[in-house]
Amino acid sequence: MRYVFNAGPQLTKDELEKMIHQIDVNYPKGSEMTMTLAEVLRKEGFEDGIEQGREEGIEKGETKALVKTVMKLLTKKFGVLPADYREKIGQLDVFTLEMIIDEIWDCDSLGTIEKYLRA
How many other β-carbons are positioned within 10 Å of the β-carbon of residue 23? Predict the structure, then answer.
């Protein structure tokens, strides 16, 4: 058990499962405590995964909303966007999309934003 607590995050899930199984085999009386520890560790991993998934979903949603905003503003200012512009805008990150939004009103032509689409 000391090893488990000392190794902590360095242990892989498979290694932890093997250790729990070995403790169950060698120390049947301690298996109840081991299972409690396993449940806690699984729950923490599960909750961490849910939180990470939630954060990734929020980030994807923000990016999607910014792409839609950039497309809408550029279309309103310059008319229908060429297909290659739409495709490239859809691949931009949040920071770049926000920079385009900040500069849209200062753009004289659609070509002004090409510097952002070269990446």
Answer: 19
